[in-house]
Design goal:
single chain; about 450 residues; alpha/beta; TIM Barrel; GI Alpha 1, domain 2-like; 2 domains; 8-stranded parallel barrel; two-stranded antiparallel ribbon; 16 helices; about 10% strand
């Protein structure tokens, strides 16, 4: 069965710089904007015979702690998440067959404090639920120490590979029971990635995965698959997660340097695989293009998109301050911060420093821990008031130019409908558009 990601692999092996962005977010505004940008790119290139089908597919992923059989921190099971994303796609004109769902870091991470046996049972059940729900891209990650059973980190690569194979067997057994699998399954292996959501301390550099490390991961996992009777499943392994030398944190971005990843890039050309790059947020068009050119074909992005949403909302809040008397304002920026202070579990262990420094990070950190608070009922109501206020008046072009110059340019050029919500989507789409550009 031909899978949309197969097209990328074939193109890469033919020397073409082809890739696909992977959205790691459950934020409805982000998903809506990504759907809109995907449709725009698809429409503008439909006449090109060589334009890949992948450009008409939107890849959205959820992580093991975000979505699992117990609900995760979103409160959604895999089936719930599929319905949620499909609903947004359908409402905005993207057929569900053009939507691809991926599971990121699927493994025992959520249950790593438990003994290995129970942690792996839960991890395997989670994988079954992902496959049953219709996910077709599965990243297997069993790199973490479990309970008191395992030696200290780093975990033995053979043990990690054996656990990945255990989860792959669960996936294969479940797939065999699915009456009409839409796209089949494709697997991603490997775990040498930046810290999810960004580094917690300022870093000047990160170590690029060595060729030997990548080779060991591939060979150990292949042996584990073969030892479990999963030779056919191994044929559907398409990518390896590696560290290409990119990272971001509260106040820094480590840019991709092709020279540092040259050997790793060349090694990909001797394998049937491409690479998956995590934490590519804030890399910019040129760096993203270079990553795809160098075989880092799957580009994960999340916080940069919600950061763009927050930027746009804060800009609207500043417009509101100029246009409405104090008693009529939503005061969204203050309300959001107040909720974060009263419910600090999503940011406190990530944002260090003095109270003043923490307050700054709550608003402006590139790690964007505020993304966990937009679904809060108080914040939702306040956002609704902000949009209602600005939707009830004609926004001065001079103020749009002051606070959202890119939106002003496109409004004046006639390519952006004139409304507050459109300006928010425009900001998110400009970031996601860089990924689509780099991918082809």
């Amino acid at each position: 069965m031909f899978h949309p990601l197969d097209e990328i692999i074939l193109a890469q092996k033919r020397g073409k710089a082809r890739g696909i962005p992977s959205i790691c977010s459950a934020h409805p505004w982000v998903l809506k904007a990504a759907v809109q940008e995907t449709l725009k790119v698809s429409t503008s290139h439909h006449h090109e015979e060589e334009r890949a089908e992948t450009f008409r597919v939107l890849l959205v992923e959820s992580t093991c702690n975000q979505v699992n059989q117990f609900g995760g921190y979103t409160g959604m099971t895999p089936a719930d998440f599929v319905r949620f994303v499909e609903g947004i796609a359908t409402e905005n004109g993207l057929p569900t067959e053009r939507l691809m769902l991926g599971g990121d870091h699927l493994g025992p991470h959520v249950w790593q404090a438990e003994p290995a046996e129970s942690a792996m049972q839960k991890a395997s059940e989670m994988v079954r639920e992902y496959v049953k729900a219709g996910y077709s891209k599965i990243h297997l990650d069993a790199s973490m120490k479990l309970g008191d059973d395992d030696p200290s980190q780093p975990l033995d690569i053979e043990l990690a590979a054996h656990r990945m194979a255990q989860m792959a067997r669960a996936a294969e057994e479940t797939l065999a029971k699915v009456s009409e699998p839409s796209q089949g399954l494709r697997y991603v292996i490997g775990t040498e990635v930046p810290v999810a959501g960004g580094a917690q301390e300022h870093e000047e550099s990160v170590v690029v995965t060595t060729v030997e490390s990548a080779r060991q991961t591939i060979e150990a996992t292949q042996r584990a698959f073969a030892g479990t009777g999963l030779e056919k499943a191994w044929e559907r392994v398409i990518a390896v997660v590696v560290q290409p030398g990119v990272e971001f944190g509260d106040d820094f971005v480590l840019d991709y340097n092709p020279d540092n990843a040259k050997q790793l890039s060349q090694f990909s050309e001797s394998t049937p695989f491409v690479y998956e790059a995590h934490s590519t947020d804030y890399q910019g068009r040129e760096n993203l293009h270079n990553l795809v050119r160098d075989h880092f074909a799957i580009l994960k992005v999340g916080p940069a998109l919600t950061f763009a949403f927050r930027e746009a909302i804060f800009a609207l809040a500043r417009m509101e301050d100029e246009l409405f008397p104090p008693e009529e304002r939503s005061n969204l920026i203050d309300v959001l911060d107040d909720v974060m202070v009263r419910q600090p579990e999503h940011w406190q262990r990530y944002y260090s420093g003095t109270p003043r420094e923490q307050a700054f990070k709550r608003k402006y950190s590139l790690s964007d821990r505020s993304r966990y608070y937009w679904s809060n009922p108080t914040v939702q109501a306040t956002l609704g008031k902000l949009l209602a206020n600005l939707g009830a008046i004609s926004l001065p072009l001079s103020l749009i130019s002051q606070t959202m110059p890119d939106a002003y340019r496109d409004i004046r050029g006639g390519s952006l409908p004139y409304s507050a919500s459109n300006m928010v989507s425009h900001r998110i789409r400009s970031v996601f558009g860089d990924y689509l550009f780099a991918s082809g």
